Amino acid sequence: MQTSIPSTATALKSLLRADLTTQWRNRRSMILILLVPVIILYSWRPLVDKFGAAYILSSAITIGLVAIGLMGYSNSIARDREKGVFQRLRVAPVPRWSIMVSRLLVQLAMILLLVVFVYVGGYYFDHVTISASGYVVTLFTALISGALYLSIGQIIVGMLKNPETVNATSRMVYFIFIFVGMLGQFGQLGEQVKTITEWSPYGVVRNILAGGMDISHWTHDTTLALLATIGYTIVFAVIGIRNFKWSIK
């Protein structure tokens, strides 16, 4: 009796279907992740005239990206690893890389959905519109920025095995990014912290998102922020992948 091995494309489609189904079953957490940036947009309406539409929209998207990478991706990987999902998939006739690629593709789809939600929320709540090129460029910068926070989630789940520890660490890092990022960017914590915030993962992401929304305001610092984003992503991804264990044993 001959056993047929599915092609890589077929295996990837099956993995994607399973991961999308799992994402849908966890739709409550997905909806919360998408709603938080929209709530930020609504509450920051008085700040649009002071800081500009690009600044507010980019901040909202950044907050959503932090949630996807830290609260969504890392926790889902930790839960599935504890349940032995990855151990079972490793003995299946599928390439190992396709297992993680499927997960990442689902998260990238979440990022695109997040950007759309922020665009719609910005239009209806703050009456914000940007150019067509701004919408397109922001989608690309959001994907690059999302990769950074996914790599941060990867390094957390790579360095830590226990899912409860992963969850607690993700929440702590999320709080630090949001609290220090939001207050630091406004200079509420001092000029030194403001400078550090601008070149932290939070600051560089917000910078390139704002630059993408208004290309005429793309500066040398924005280009440096883009390079920093790519650099952060590579470093965190390499460390996270090298230390990742397929099981908690």
Notes on the protein architecture:
The protein is mainly alpha-helical and 249 residues long. It has one domain. Helices cover 81% and strands 0% of the residues. It is built from 11 helices and no strands. It has helices at 8-25, 27-43, 48-51, 53-82, 85-90, 96-126, 132-159, 163-185, 191-198, 201-213, 220-243. The model has no long low-confidence stretch (mean pLDDT 83).
Supply the key terms.
81% helix, 11 helices, membrane, ABC-2 type transporter transmembrane domain-containing protein, 249 residues, transmembrane, single chain, mainly alpha, ABC2_TM
Helix content: over 70%
Poorly predicted parts: none
**Global outline:** globular
Question: Helical segment tally?
Answer: 11
DSSP strand tally: 0
Q: From the helix content, strand content and strand pairing, which structural class follows?
A: mainly alpha
User: Could you say how many structural domains there are in total?
Assistant: 1
Backbone CA Rg: 19 Å
H/E series, N to C? HHHHHHHHHHH
Largest sheet: none
Organism: Chitinophaga parva
Protein name: ABC-2 type transporter transmembrane domain-containing protein
Pfam families: ABC2_membrane
Transmembrane segments: 30-47, 53-73, 104-125, 137-160, 172-190, 223-241
In short:
This protein is 81% helix and 0% strand.
Topology:
Blueprint: H1 8-25, H2 27-43, H3 48-51, H4 53-82, H5 85-90, H6 96-126, H7 132-159, H8 163-185, H9 191-198, H10 201-213, H11 220-243
Helix pairs in contact: 1-6, 2-4, 2-6, 4-6, 4-7, 4-8, 4-10, 6-7, 7-10, 7-11, 8-9, 10-11
